[in-house]
Task: inverse folding
């Protein structure tokens, strides 16, 4: 019994220090602008898919109807406007991808828990900018949006294996994505930022100041790429399953910093 009580006290202590018994205490974290280049989010479909152009055309309709603007305001993110969004994907008519999706009646969307793009509301339903956007597109297609959590590091494998029909989760468009899949034109911009503990605000103020430190990032993410591409940072990389796990690394002291999407950082750290 004494051992059980001791274990419960440890758990309670961790609860207070890490999550304040009601949610992760992200208020103890600070965002550091690293001055990195702007990135862009897109949606990936299988190579040669006829879905890519269909979704681009529907997206333009939604922009003209003011729906993406509505979602931008609701979730406090910056979607691109009509003048910046010009559908450009090949039609790839007859590829069979749309026929496959139409026949089963669902578009299986590969996501991770990533606020404000895809996350669960109080009723357990997926909400967020991308979730709302995907449902609006599916409504016009006449199919149901089915959200499936995936291992982000293996997203392209899941797509090719038809475990999912697309990757739609604040996905940064990269050369690797475009080489392995069909990607829509960008619908939103983003950048990578560092997240540190507030107590280290005077110590870690730039990319150079992170040299030699343990830095967490989601496996397969743009943040991980920033670390890998910098020889002074690569040795300290700690790959984790999700961006929120990278933030928990910093909260717990296991890592001095995390490199994550600006959109996620701004949504969680107030």
Result:
């Amino acid at each position: 019994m004494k051992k059980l009580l001791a274990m419960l006290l440890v758990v309670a202590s961790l609860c207070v220090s890490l999550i304040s018994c009601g949610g992760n205490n992200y208020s103890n974290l600070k965002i550091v602008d690293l001055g990195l280049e702007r990135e862009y989010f897109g949606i990936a479909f299988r190579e040669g898919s006829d879905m890519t152009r269909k979704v681009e055309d529907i997206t333009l309709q939604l922009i003209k109807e003011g729906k993406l603007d509505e979602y931008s305001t609701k979730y406090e993110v910056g979607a691109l406007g009509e003048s910046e969004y010009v559908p450009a994907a090949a039609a790839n008519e007859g590829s069979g991808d749309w026929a496959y999706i139409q026949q089963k009646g669902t578009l299986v969307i590969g996501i991770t828990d990533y606020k404000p793009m895809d996350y669960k509301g109080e009723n357990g339903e997926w909400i967020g900018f991308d979730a709302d956007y995907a449902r609006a597109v599916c409504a016009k297609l006449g199919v149901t949006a089915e959200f499936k959590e995936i291992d982000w590091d293996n997203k392209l494998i899941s797509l090719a294996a038809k475990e999912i029909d697309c990757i739609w989760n604040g996905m940064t468009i990269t050369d690797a994505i475009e080489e392995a899949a069909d990607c829509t034109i960008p619908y939103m911009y983003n950048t990578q930022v560092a997240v540190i503990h507030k107590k280290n605000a005077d110590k870690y103020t730039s990319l150079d100041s992170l040299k030699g430190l343990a830095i967490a990032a989601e496996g397969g993410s743009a943040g991980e790429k920033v670390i890998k591409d910098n020889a002074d940072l690569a040795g300290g990389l700690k790959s984790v399953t999700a961006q929120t796990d990278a933030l928990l690394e910093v909260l717990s002291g296991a890592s001095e910093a995390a490199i994550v999407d600006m959109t996620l950082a701004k949504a969680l750290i107030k």
Summary: Confidence is low (pLDDT under 50) at residues 1-22. DSSP finds eleven helices and 13 strands in the chain. The first strand starts at residue 29 and ends at 33. The radius of gyration is 20 Å.
